[in-house]
Amino acid sequence: xxxxxxxxxxxxxxxxxxxxxxxxxxxxxxxxxxxxxxxxxxxxxxxxxxxxxxxxxxxxxxxxxxxxxxxxxxxxxxxxxxxxxxxxxxxxxxxxxxxxxxxxxxxxxxxxxxxxxxxxxxxxxxxxxxxxxxxxxxxxxxxxxxxxxxxxxxxxxxxxxxxxxxxxxxxxxxxxxxxxxxxxxxxxxxxxxxxxxxxxxxxxxxxxxxxxxxxxxxxxxxxxxxx
Length: 227
Hints:
The protein is mostly helical. The protein has one domain (about 10-225). The protein has helices spanning about 15-45, 55-90, 90-105, 110-120, 125-135, 145-150, 160-165, 170-180, 200-225. The radius of gyration is 21 Å and the shape is elongated. The two termini are about 25 Å apart.
């Protein structure tokens, strides 16, 4: 699989970078295993053209799931480790925190939340911890969730946000696999009961997801003065 963008690192993004690198290695290993199976089939004189056998398509499904999981873990780690520092240097990130707090104190539980913040030894830290929990409480497996994370991290580059929008096919595939096992209703006898996955398209989906995550990490590291 094609490599990722060169990493820009700083102390606050180091662990997220490590999580992403581990995810990339796992996904790449899936594709390597698939290529090994295809070479074995070819050496046995079997046809490797056309639709992949079910066991090989399962490796593609695993690659999609590993890509989504890698994005989720790396981005959550990035939020937890870097957001407190970003709030001190990024006006855009701080604006999102203010919007979160404004929404929080308008809710029915506002008196309770406000009281807890006010009696906290460090009120601002208490707000930030709630903010981080709101960003990481669910799996980051949709364009809307990843876009929200990018905004919270103060990343407003138009090209990057467009690339995040381009992740939708990956998340559609991920949800079809994780929630439905790619099962589909057959229309006639002989139809396959599972959606087909193709090698080239799946490689592209996986790479796009992991590489976009790399760009998000790089953007945060750059904001924080990464070397």
